[in-house]
Amino acid sequence: MAVLLSPITDYTGPGPAGVHFTRGRAETDDPAAIAYAHRHGYTVEETKPRRKPTPATPPETPKE
Questions:
Q1: pLDDT of residue 17
Q2: Three-class SS string for 1-20?
Q3: How would you classify the pairing of strands 43-46 and 25-28?
Q4: C-alpha to C-alpha distance for 16 and 31, rounded to whole angstroms
Q5: Which residues contact 54 (CB under 8 A, 6 or more apart)?
Q6: Region annotation Disordered: residue ranges (predicted)?
Q7: pLDDT 10s digits, 5-62
Q8: pTM of the predicted model, to two decimals?
Q9: Nearest residue to 42 (alpha-carbon basis) of 18, 21, 64, 63
């Protein structure tokens, strides 16, 4: 996941590779959009991937 910051700080609208900017900020995990942003002057803040929560395992019932 990466946060893209537009060179126009308060831009709201469509961006490269279909990402949408709100007040100059967009989030994407698309490697093509991230690479484009790096090459064209956007600030790119790499973040750790969000983990999906693991489902809780039900407690075992005692065997009789």
A1: 87
A2: CEEEECCCCCCCEECHHHCE
A3: unpaired
A4: 12
A5: none
A6: 40-64
A7: 999 999 999 998 899 999 999 999 999 999 999 999 999 999 876 666 666 666 677 7
A8: 0.71
A9: 21
